[in-house]
Specification:
This protein is mainly beta and about 210 residues long. It is about 10% helix and about 35% strand. It has helices at about 80-85, 105-110, 165-170; strands at about 25-30, 65, 70, 95-100, 115-120, 125-130, 135-140, 145-150, 150-155, 160-165, 170-175, 180, 195, 200, 205-210. The model has no long low-confidence stretch (mean pLDDT about 95).
Length: about 210
Amino acid sequence: MDGRTVFSRPGGGTRVGESLTSQPVTLRSDPFAAGIACAPFVVAHASSRDSSVFDNGLPLGPADWIRRGELSALTQTRYSSRLTGLPVTPAIDNLIFETADPEPPSLDEMIARTGRGLLLTCLWYIREVDPQTLLLTGLTRDGVYLVENGEVTGAVNNFRFNESPVGMLSRLAEVGASVPTLPREWGDYFSRAVMPPVRVEGFNMSSVSQAS
């Protein structure tokens, strides 16, 4: 609302209601989701920009953050809700990213439809560079492979990347079937996620990395 984040609307307000991608994808949280269930109420050990100890115990329900490509909600404490006019929507300790495509492709099918690209298995050491665009930097890890004419043809070196996940949404070319996934970067304290493989046009590798 104050123009400091990628979800602030120029001139004031938020971007809720704005289309972020043409793909029919949904990013949601649900404390009762099978296999990744979490506390159905707010647990805040300390107050921060995104959380308040005064919200402890508030009941949590399912929340769609992005619904069929449109930004539909933002995390909101009771205080920030009064400022934005958005519903109180505390953070929930899981994430599900999925496509509405009734027959999403498998990873093998997505590779077979790729002319030339890189197959990434892991991103880590991720840090925020610019909150106004949500530009992130980080490194690849645990295997980077070259795809040519629909086949994996070899392993290549690691890279440093500079990308915004919000910008990537606008360049989503294909979204596969969602499966339970352990976030590599945040696995110690955020372990409940269901994510699909995605094919992104023009993913920005900024330099070669010596990380192994």
